[in-house]
Amino acid sequence: MEGKHKKIIVSVIVLGMLMIxxxxxxxxxxLKFYNSVTFFDVGQGDSALIRFANGQKMLVDCGVNRKILxxxxxxxxxxxxxxxxxxxxHPDGDHYGGCPAVLERYVVKNIITNxxxxxxxxxxxxxxxxxxxxxxxxxxxxxxKIMTIGDSQLEFLAPDEKLVMNIDNSDSNNxxxxxxxxxxxxxxxxxxxxxxxxxxAIIQSYCSKTIECPILKSDYLKVGHHGSDSSSGEYFxxxxxxxxxxxxxxxxxxxxxSRRVLRKLLRTDAxxxxxxxxxxxxxx
Length: 284
Fold this sequence. Notes:
The protein is of the alpha/beta class.
């Protein structure tokens, strides 16, 4: 009798595995991949999932905690445990605090950072531990670079050793990875926590003294530093000319987003989308 029960249990397990495998095959064989970007509502922090037309995925920042896991769980099929690219714009807790949890839960193939280290930060020590265990391919952005994924182009504008800035060694915001994503959705400018010094350095390096700057002009702007008053200068916004401005923000004590920044965005005729008001924001 006991042997019969064991056979039944084994049969149920095998049947379950076959059903999961069948669903996985059906999902992948019928799914049509397309370009999209989801700006997750992770509270006072940043995280966005980029999906490419070739089926690959890039997670840009992870928010402050494990909330990112529930967001990824909602956005991806339950059996999908692969992140092709994990990009951390800079090592501030509200941008990479949730990344160790992502490295625990998912297979991450490539990690992209600005190379900064914070050896006295518990977040960074956890990040270092799990990123070493992951054994992903590591890329450090330190100069202008263009990457192609599927039919999308990513152009990295910062960090760049050629950019001239007068900032302290402790200034991590203005060492953020800044890049433009271009595909059939248009152009989306990701800014991390970029503030005025980095905005001005990029303008000085890439823009001639005219009212147009093709490398910055974008359809969508991920507003720098959660809409802080230290970011989104008027001249910078006039060059970007965004149709849509995404502010990744939650309840906070810093006054983000600044009313002054919101008024400047409105003067550019940008439509403002805030994650604290709209929750996840999907561009597709």
